[in-house]
Amino acid sequence: MERKDIEIISRHSNWTEKGIDKVLKEEVYSDSKSWKGFLNLLFISLGVGFTVSGIVFFFAFNWADLHKFTKMGLIEGLIILTTSVVLFSKLNLNVKNIILTGTSVLVGVLIAVFGQIYQTGANAYDFFLGWTLFISLWVIISNFPPLWLVFLTLVNTTFVLYSQQVASDWSEVFVFSSLFLFNSLVLVILHLLLKFRNDIKVPSWFTSILGFAAIVFSTIGIIMGIFDNHQSSFLLLILLSIVAYGAGIIYSFRTKNGFYLSLIPFSIIIIISSLLIKISEDAAMFFIVSLFIIASVTLLIKGLLDIQKKWNNGK
């Protein structure tokens, strides 16, 4: 039970203050044990993150003074050590997943070190492709959203670099359309799994990041299509965006979540502003665009506040 559910029930019932306070403490408020667990995971995450950063800076600072065997041996030894801790220790599962996420970053460091030693082109797309493939099994078995986020970031980066370094004939609109479609499909699959599988838990921050990324890719692709009228994938991106934006708004009203309801109109405002600038680039048009942005953002905020007020009143 969430806070808003308790507020609605208390407003339309004779629920006593004592009973409300008890439910809030049991269902909503975090107790000392919860805070201790949160701080424990936070400090472990910071420790792993700083350790990985220290390893990266160690190699960067001492690169010229290290033998290639030492370079490879150190990083491989660290990966073996951390993986062994994950496999054979009796640590908490969340702690193991945090260590595994740090180890997945070390895999990228290992590939980069190998590429620098043997001049294989560590900055090419195949560096990120190899990194992605090597940690895929960990991503599948971990069921850990931060590691999923690392994996999806690598997939998107690999695709972008491939389009720049190999498939240079791909248009930018096609690239951003593909990124939008991929991230949207992952988001839809996650929502379907959450609906039909009770054993899978995906935090809201993870789906919000995915939704944000998809809308950003869509917005950038449409803007590029507006300023370049010869992109064959532009119309497809428009149609897909209309479907996705409509689904996002419907989802927001059904779940009473204002995330997509605020992000999608803001994307539309940016797109319309770009369209106006495409029509004319004189000073008068820039003045009109400025007025449009001010007015539309103001109306958007007012509308969101009204909708939130209705949701808080149980309507």
TrEMBL record:
The keyword Cell division does not apply. Residues 40-148 form the DUF2157 domain. It holds the Pfam family DUF2157. Keywords: Membrane, Transmembrane, Transmembrane helix. The chain crosses the membrane at residues 38-61, 73-91, 98-118, 124-141, 173-193, 205-227, 233-251, 258-277, 283-305. This is Putative membrane protein DUF2157. InterPro entries: DUF2157.
